[in-house]
Amino acid sequence: ANWLAVESGGQGFLLGLADAGEIFPLSALKPVPHTQGWFAGVANLRGGLHGVVDLAAFLGLRAPALPESVREHARLVALNPVLGAQCALLVERLAGLRLPDQLERLEESDDSARPAFAGPVWRDSEGRVWQELNLPALARHEQFLGIAS
């Protein structure tokens, strides 16, 4: 497995490269009324409308409004079209690629408290902890699909 490392809400996340699609700069988002606060709106990405989910807000790591201080580095990571979800994740910063030999899997104490899309937790050589996100499971997750408020 190879991962795209991203940061959101002060946390590090690993997204499987096979499940992630294209990466786009943060473009103008059109708000959608009567949706959850973490649903940032829709964006036109290469001619297709994509729903945009603010990853940090969805995970409860910060309030839904993206701080101005991180807008410059924020990116939209589209999900691979084969996942059947026409959406993109709003992340605060890209942190490069990670390979399996660069990471050590950490033992987890209680898997039952974590959502199905939360994969293993990893640590890199600098001691930084990364939470793997299973994008196919996220794309099917009931809360992720339920954008209506």
Structure overview:
- The structure is a single chain.
- This protein has 149 residues and is mainly β.
- Helices cover 12% and strands 42% of the residues.
- It has 4 helices and 11 strands, in the order E-E-E-E-E-H-H-E-E-E-E-E-E-H-H.
- It has a 6-stranded mixed beta sheet.
- The longest helix is centred in the C-terminal third of the chain and has 6 residues, at 135-140.
- The protein is globular, with a radius of gyration of 15 Å.
- The N and C termini lie far apart (36 Å).
- The mean pLDDT is 94.
Main features:
mainly beta; globular; 5-stranded mixed β-sheet
What topology does this entry show?
Elements: E1 3-8, E2 11-16, E3 20-25, E4 39-45, E5 48-54, H1 55-58, H2 68-71, E6 75-79, E7 87-91, E8 93-98, E9 103-105, E10 118-124, E11 129-133, H3 135-140, H4 142-145
Parallel strand pairs: 2-11, 5-7
Antiparallel strand pairs: 1-2, 1-8, 3-6, 4-5, 6-7, 9-10, 10-11
Main sheet characteristics: 6 strands, mixed
- The percentage of residues in β strands lies in 35-45%
Number of helices in the DSSP assignment: 4
Across the major sheet, the strand order is 8-1-2-11-10-9
Q: Briefly, what is this?
A:
12% of the residues lie in helices and 42% in strands.
